[in-house]
Specification:
The protein is of the alpha/beta class. It has helices at about 5-15, 25-40, 50-60, 70-85, 95-100, 105-115, 130-140, 180-200, 220-235, 245-250, 250-255, 275-290, 315-330; strands at about 15-20, 40-45, 65, 120, 150-155, 165-170, 205, 240-245, 270, 290-300, 305.
């Protein structure tokens, strides 16, 4: 099963409009052209006439929908709406205009806010903070979600663990040091994301260096409490822990360390205790196992706004765009 090819097929059924605001990055231009060739969603680019001309020197993006900051009529609409949204923070029209023409992530989020686009994928040449700050300020969280978090959709070739090599790793991109309550929320949201994107039953393991009380420490206590909270709030999902990663994914280890768990040895959603562990974990698997790693994918946002690793390839960008397009379908 190629998870991205499956998502592209689903995206074609109900086409969505995805913004790629980093017109200055060659990988983004090449990805935009490939997406238009595969025709699984509508691509939107943002750029001045000069920036578009420079992009055309890389590849033919003429078939994309292009919004230009030089379009004064549209810019004024975006400025007016952004001032309205940020008036409590004292934003002026001049400040809003400067943000929109200098930071295309703000422009992209405003296109979504005004209903001119459905989702955004950025981060190829910008930090996660610069990518997600505008989204959190403008798009904000879903009404029924307590926390925006991020995950990587991982696919490891020739792997029998997880869901035939498919996993979600969370939080691997956003929440630095989650509390027990936040870990529980991340676990539940990640289960929902796995269920929707992969179409299989999620089996969620909250990870630690301890398995079922094998070690005692306040860091372990945090995970133990998170498991309790997650099981209470998301009782419809299989969630367990605390589990070491080998006990979580390897059946032979699980039978020795956690024989009574219905998740141990079968986990396909891995919840890391903090961002250090999550980020290190996904990059180790990506580089050493030559796995595909798509993300960070945000969950809990009112509209899909997704980040990219600055080390991403053109193929990574295409994959995240496919995920984003299907995420948009799920919120309808």
């Amino acid at each position: 099963m190629d998870i991205i090819e499956d998502l592209k097929k689903r995206a074609r059924v109900e086409r969505k409009r995805i913004v790629l605001p980093e017109i200055m990055d060659k990988r983004v231009i090449e990805a935009a052209c490939a997406i238009m060739e595969e025709d699984f969603c509508d691509v939107i680019l943002i750029g001045t006439k000069r920036e578009v001309e420079e992009a055309l020197e890389v590849a033919d993006v003429s078939k994309a929908q292009i919004y230009s900051p030089d379009d004064e009529e549209l810019l004024e609409k975006l400025v007016s709406k952004l001032v309205e949204l940020r008036k409590d923070k004292g934003m002026t029209a001049e400040e809003a205009r400067n943000l929109l023409v200098s930071d295309y992530m703000y422009y992209a989020c405003m296109l979504v806010k005004l209903g001119l686009a459905d989702g955004v994928v950025s981060g190829a040449c910008h930090s996660t903070a610069n990518t997600l700050r505008p989204a959190l300020q403008i798009i904000k969280t879903k009404k029924d979600v307590e926390l925006v978090s991020a995950f990587f959709l991982m696919q490891v070739e020739n792997c029998t663990y997880g869901e035939k090599g498919i996993f979600i790793f969370a939080d691997s991109g956003l929440v630095q040091n989650p509390t027990s309550q936040e870990l529980a929320e991340i676990a539940g949201c990640s289960a929902k994301s796995f269920e929707y994107l992969v179409g299989e039953e999620p089996r969620v393991a909250l990870l630690s260096y301890s398995t079922m009380g094998s070690s005692k420490h306040e860091d372990v206590d945090k995970v133990v409490e998170a498991v309790k909270l997650a099981k209470e709030k998301f009782a419809n999902y299989k969630i367990d822990g605390e589990l070491q990663v080998d006990a979580a994914i390897i059946p032979e280890v699980a039978t020795r360390k956690a024989p009574n768990s219905d998740v141990a040895g079968k986990a396909n959603v891995l919840i890391f205790p903090n961002l250090d562990a999550g980020n290190i974990g996904y990059k180790l698997v990506q580089r050493l196992a030559k796995a595909s790693a798509y993300g960070p994918i945000c969950q809990g946002m009112a509209a899909p706004i997704n980040d990219l690793s600055r080390g991403c390839s053109m193929e990574d960008i295409i994959g995240v765009v496919a995920i984003t397009a299907v995420q948009v379908q799920s919120k309808n």
